[in-house]
Every structure is written in structure tokens, then in C-alpha cells.
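Submission sheet (multi-component)
Chains listed below:
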Amino acid sequence: MLRRQRRRVLATESIGPYTLLRVARGGLEPGIPGQFFMLEAPGRPLPRPMSLCLAPPGELAFLIDPIGPGTRALCRLRPGDRLGVLGPLGNGFSLDVERPLLVGGGIGIAPLPYLSDALGHPPAVLGFRSDLHAEAARLVPNAEVVLEPTYVTEAIRPGHDVLACGPEPMLAAVASLEPTAQLAWEAPMACGYGACYGCAVEIDGEIKRLCLDGPVLAAEAVAA
Amino acid sequence: MKILNASGCLDALTAPEVARSLDAFVTKTVTPLPREGNAPARIAEVEHGMLNSIGLANPGIDRFLAHTLPRLAELGVPVWVSVGGFAVADYADLCDRLDDRPEVDAIELNVSCPNVDDVPASVAEIVAAARAATRKPLYTKLSPATADVAEVARAAQKAGTDGLSLVNTILGLALDERTLKPRLSRAAGGLSGPALKPIALAAVYACYAATGLPIVGMGGISSGRDAVEFIAAGAASVALGTVLFSDPAAPERVRAELSSEIADLPVGEVDNAIGLAHAERPAPSETAARLAAMSVQ
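Outcome: structure written.
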């Protein structure tokens, strides 16, 4: 049943420019890595889609970059505050991979800590804009960090099953390098459950809703 | 008094349990031919609302009748089909094709989408052509972006509409906070959510006084309090739009809140609150009895 749950904020933690928001899990399932939740942004009309970053017992944790009014409101939450949480939503990563390599860029590393836990801490390549942003790399075990102007694609060694999340140009570059990669995309969405048609993208030559058919897609399915 | 969804704010096939919590499901607008809709970005949040420029993305009437409608009927919720076109004949054809489909409880004429370039013909012509094509209950969805919405409502009534859906979105613009460029690919988009509520209430109030037609009120309704205000302004039913995006359980919550709002009023039941805001209530339009007989209102 699609029902938004009220959940209590347990803690917030600054990690470089980002905030790790830890909320009480209650009866919510953490879902598959790469799935997302709609988080009520206090004072804003629409919730924000956030992939799950970590799922310690009794918690759901989200890594948030305060780039707009909604994400800033989420980063201002304090322990004891409550917010509406809907999820898990969408399709996550397929965990049936033999030689996983996690690839992340910037805030796109958000789903990778939970994914890394699920896959037994495989190697990872993470790209960031600055040393400050790169502080988030500590959430992902076994990670090699590259900083701009070096790009993650320069650090990807062949022969891996790539699972990636990051900005669109990074995903497009990963897709052309690794056509079998699994990529987690992002699009503006108001609802997260197929109602608003805001997140339409071209998948397999057809316009589809990223919230239902994604956010994780096979690289070859997407016209980059 | 029914609680519906605003057209385009719910996909009953991907969220059937949400559709089943409504008294009737209103489809996304169906057009003669398939439409992919506008390029992204198609939505943007603004203070107290959101903009959308989806652009009437839909499978077109052929595929809708063959594939979508039979599946909608299986949900067990009355189905209202929203139709849109770019010429009077489009509306007539669409209504004609829906007329013999038992799965369709009512037709909503979307004569007011702000997100397409083609300007449809006059509302009266469209309604008259649709009326000639179908016996199904016809609701005409009007834009509040007009000098005198009551005048348009009167013209729609004269042309044979059974009811009014009030209101569609109104064009708004949002700029990116860093680049100051439009956030939507089409620049402007339809404003919905709480910011639309006073505009919608004014339209409901004026059209109820002018026509006495059954009205589905919508525009920023997110609580039972909002719903009771629309009913007092003259709405016989209400539709939920933007609130469904943040709260899929809004229909049952609004229904429960509305019950307690009505219990606080000296009116007994909700239908007695229709038009309460008016000093004098107009005589109900003759279509009201027809719709009641068909269990549409």
C-alpha cells in the first residue's frame, strides 16, 4: 500500500558539504540498493526523491546535498523532528553480478554505501569536485578517489560489472565505456509512484517514467 | 459529494489502491493521436505549488480504447475520461467513440490545457459538438485565466454541458536560482497546488452563482477544510491534484477531515453545505437531477 509514514529523525551528520540524515526505520523496508524514498521536505509542497544510503538496524539513512530549498530544508532537520517517508520505490540494482565495481560521482555516491554492504564491499571508484566533497568517500569501503580534473572513467579497469550513479555526463561516459553497466539516473519527480509524469525519459526508444522503470537502468537501454 | 482526482494527477493502473480510494477516477487527457509530451524538465516546484508542462502525454484514443479502458474498468471504480483536442471535430469524434463504451461513466472536456500551443476553438462550439455526439454526462473543465469565467460557464451551459470542472492550472514561470533561466523546457507551465486555491474558489463561486450547474471543485485542495470551502463556494464534488503527489493516502484523509468539518456545521449532511457561502443560492440546474439519476453526482 502506498502510504506515507511519519518517521522521527534520529541524527544528522555533516560529511563534507553533505548531510547524512538518519531516520527511524519503524516498519519500513529498506528495499534493494538503488531504490529510493520520497522524503517530505519541511515547508515545501513536494517531497524529494532520495536513494537509500545506509540501512543500519532500525535506521534508514540518506545522504543529501543542500542545493535547493527542499534539500536545504531536509538538511536543517534536527533529532526528534518528524517527516513523511514514502518507499521504497522504483527498481534497484541487480545484485547478480560476478565482479562488481561501484562507480560514483559527487552526490551520486549516495546509494553506493548500501550497495557496497549488499555486495560484500567490492572495489569502488569515486570522483569528486574537491577534497571537501571527497570526505563522503569514507562511507564507501575499498574506494579509490579521483578529483577533478581526473574523471572516474580514467580509473575504471576493464573486466568488471559496473554499477554506477552520478551526474548525467558521467553516466553517459560510463555507458559508452561499459555498455553492460547498470546506471542509476536522476530526474525531477513530484510523486515517485507514476502519477505526475514529471520524470519521463527515453528508455529503449520509448518515453517512460524513470520512477517506475528506473531509476536503475541497463546502460544500453538509455539514449544518452 | 464525491472525491475524485484531478485529471493527470494519478495513474490508476500503476497505483490501483489510490484509485480505489476515490469515488471516481478521472483519466489523464486522451487526445485523437498519441502524444509523447514535452521535453524534460516538465515539472518544477515553486513556493506554495508546482508548475508542470507535461504536454498531454497519452497513448491516443485508439490505444486508450483497446488497452487502457478495459483495464481501468477492472478496478471497479467509476471512470471519467478526460478528452482534449485541437479542433471542434476532435472533441466530437472523441465523445462519439466513448459514447457506446459502458466502462465510461462521464466525459470531461479539457478545453483549457495551458501546455499545448494549439488554441482550441471556442468553448461553446466544443461543448455543442460534444453534446451532439454523446449522451454521457459531460463536464467541461475551464481555465480561470479569463476575464469572466462565469460568462464562459454560461456559454458552456447553453451549449449543453451537464457540469463544470473548476479549475485547470494557470500559467506560471519559475527561474533557476543560479542561472536565472526557465526551469521548464517550455519556459512557462501550469501552476497547481495551494497557490491556485483562492483563484479556483473565486471561479467556483462565480460559476455556481451564474449557472447552478454541478461543479467539481479543484485547485490546491489538500485538507478537509479546503474541501468544505469549495463546497460552500458551490462545488458539489471535489478533486485532488497536487496533494496526491506528496500524500497518496490523501483521498481517505480528506474524506475523514471533511466529515468532521461538516459535523461542526449546522447543515446535517454535506450536500446541504453546497453554496453556503452565497447569500442566495441559485436554483439547481436541471442537469443536477439527470446526473443524480445516473449516480454521477
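Remark: Chain A has five helices and 14 strands.
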